[in-house]
Structure formats: C-alpha cells, structure tokens
Amino acid sequence: MTASTTAGCAAPDQAAPLPASLDLEKETVITGVVRDAAGEPVTGAYVRLLDSTDEFTAEVVTSPAGQFRFFAAPGTWRLRALSRHGNGDTVLTASRGVNEATVPVAVD
Amino acid sequence: MSRDTTLVSADWAEKNLETPGVVFVEVDEDTSAYVTGHLPGAIKLDWKTDLQDQVRRDFVNKDQFAALLSERGIANDDTVVLYGGNNNWFAAYAYWYFALYGHHEVRLLDGGRKKWELDARPLTAETVSRPATQYVAQDPDHTIRAFRDEVVAAIGTKNLVDVRSPDEYAGRLLAPAHLPQEQAQRAGHVPTAISVPWSKAANEDGTFKSDQELREIYAAAGLDDSRETIAYCRIGERSSHTWFVLQELLGHRNVKNYDGSWTEYGSLVGVPVALGDEPGKE
Question: How many distinct structural domains can be found in chain B?
C-alpha cells in the first residue's frame, strides 16, 4: 500500500485511499480537486503547496479525477495549481485531520 | 561550467529528439509516468532499482554503472540529456552520477517533465530499446561526493547548505509535505548549515532561474564562495539539484553533494543537531 511512498520522494498516487496506518490525530492532510472554469476536474495539473511566507514546500500532480493530497502541518498554506488550462491559487488555514480545498484554474 | 555545456532548453530538445549521438533519459523514482508517456526515443532509468545498490545503502559502483549504461545502450561519446519529474530532482541526481563516473557530455533538460507537459510537447508510450554498448566508467570523482565524517568536520568551517524546505530545516517536518510524516529519525539540521531551499533556484515551471538571480540568492543567504561547500537534503536528490546550480551553472569549485543527507545524519548517534530557523552554533 504506502510502503513505496515512505522511502523516497515520488508523490504517491493522489487518488489512493488514505493509508489505514495514518493517524489523523497527528497528521494534517490537505486534499482537494483542481477544477477548470467549467468546473470540470483537471488531471495532470501541478499543485504546489506554499507556506505562509510563500516558500515552496511540496508539489504533486493531480489524479485523473483532478485530486491532490499533501501531508502538512497546522497553519496557513497557499495552493498554487499550474495546468495547460491555466493557473490558479487558493489559500486555506489547515488544522489537524483532513482539510479539503478546491483550486480553480483559468487561462490568465 | 556554464549553461551552454550543462543545460538544454525544451525547444532544443524537441528539435534534437532524433539527432544521432543524443540520448534522452528519463530518471524518476517512480517510473509509472514514463510508462504512460515519455519524450519520443527516451529511455528510462529507475532511481531505486537501477541506480541504487540493492543490498547495502549506497548507489551503484563503477562496474554496476558501466554495466547499466552498456545494457541500456548509452555509449561513452553520446550526449546524454537527463530529465524527470519532481522538478528534475532525480535527473539532477543522475547527472551527478554521470559526472562522478566521468561521462563527458551530459545535460539536464531545463524544466524537466513539468515544463514539457505544461507546454503540451509530444509524449509517447512507445517501447524504446537501444543496441547494447561497451560503456567504460571512470573511477568515482570523490571531489563531488561528501561522506558523513566530512559533514561533521565541516560544522563551522565549510559552507553547509541545507536545501530542504524551511519546515524540514527547523525540525517541524521530517519529510517533504506530500509524504506521510512517519519517519523515525531525529528532526533538525546540521549546526551552522544555512537554509537555502532547492526551490529558490527554480521557477515555478521547473526551469532554473538566471545566473544573476542565482548568484544573488546564495550571496543573500551567506554562502561564502571562497570556501568549500557541502549540500545536503533528505536523501541526496534535492541537494543534487543545488549541487548542479552551484557547480555546473555558477561554476563554484569544491562543491560536494552529501548523498547520505538527513536520513543518515539525523540517525547518527552523538552528532550535534540544531533545531529552529537559525543555523545554530558549533
């Protein structure tokens, strides 16, 4: 299941269920979907997690259903999505447990 | 070293996909992206199964490297163009191997897979095979590889550059934020290491910033380029990216990549560790 994700840096499958071993009392999961102007999910978008100082923290590629997921920490984060359909941003304040967000993208 | 001899643009790559003597190589830790689509003609190297020793914690030795390249059809006089996902982290790691084992003509594709995809350039799922070669690797160049004792000895004397994210540096996270945080080793950084996240060197499309921007970033962070430098991260791939910037783009001398990085250092018994956002004392 998630063994392959723990040793290195490749992003795990963004559509996979959360691992059963995950302790949501401790982990801060930020998850959601990238959507285009028509509201359709965007696959293959690059989602960047930026911290409260706008410093890059991590990046994943969205699943066929447009999903992304980060394991972060409580605090304020910016999600920045890059795609062939355009780019977009959203800011959220995350707490422990699962935090959901939608990132809209549109041609600039 | 300079961009002319170390980096190619996506435009150059697209025009040279079929040029004889130019071999495109996708390098990733997870090669599933390669399977669904890669640059036409590109072969793949799997960071975990091809480039790491499968028993002890080390990367492939000279003979293993030569056997791998021979089997994949890379010749000593080929120009090897490396690219991959994760903003070229593992491609930069492989570049460092090619440099370590003395390959003459090796380049990184600026922007890697990300820029290629965002530009909607051609990708194909076709199977690629190249005729085997008789590749000869050189003895490893240890002037670009740092080992743990050298890192401990460098505290307070050499430039130590921690290229992980600020939260990893400070000890608030143990791994990049797209991975579960269950690693067991201690968090923090090597005392006196400055924090210059690898990402500061890259634009959001994965291309490298300009030489002038790069020089300003490291100068502002307090990197003294008259001294030797050791770069590290968690497993040595992001620090390969920074090693590439400092030595191959900016032409610094005596830059080493510590591939053991935090997963080794943060598990050593008795070595000093600093917590928080400041470099800390010796």
Answer: 2
The token duo for B244 is 């590439």
Domain residues for the domain of B7 are 3-140
Residue-wise pLDDT for A23-53, tens only, equals 767 789 999 999 999 999 999 999 999 988 8
Regions of chain B short of the pLDDT cut 50 = 182, 184
Contact across the interface for A6 and B86, Cβ inside 8 Å: no
- Contacting residues of A for B234, CB less than 8 Å apart: 9
Catalytic residue IDs of B: 233
Min Cα distance A30 → chain B (Å) is 9
Residues of chain B positioned with their CB less than 8 A from the CB of A10: 28-30, 85-86
Cβ distance A84 to B182 less than 8 Å, yes or no, reads no
Look up the CATH number of the domain holding residue B202: 3.40.250.10
What is the value of ipTM here, to two decimals? 0.81
CB B80 within 8 A of CB B103: yes
Question: Which H or E element spans position B6?
Answer: helix B3-6
Shortest Cα distance, chain B CAs vs residue A41, angstroms = 16
pLDDT at position A89 over 90: yes
Q: Confidence band (pLDDT; 50, 70, 90) for A72? A: confident
The CA distance from A48 to A34, in Å, is 12
Chain-chain contact of A7 with B48 (C-beta, under 8 angstroms): yes
Q: What is the DSSP string of B86-151?
A: GGGHHHHHHHHHHHHTT-SSEEEETTHHHHHHHTT---B------------PPPP-GGGB--HHHH
Same domain membership, residue B206 and residue B224: yes
- Pick B180's closest partner by Cβ from A2, A53, A58: A2
Domain boundary among B140, B158, B188: B140
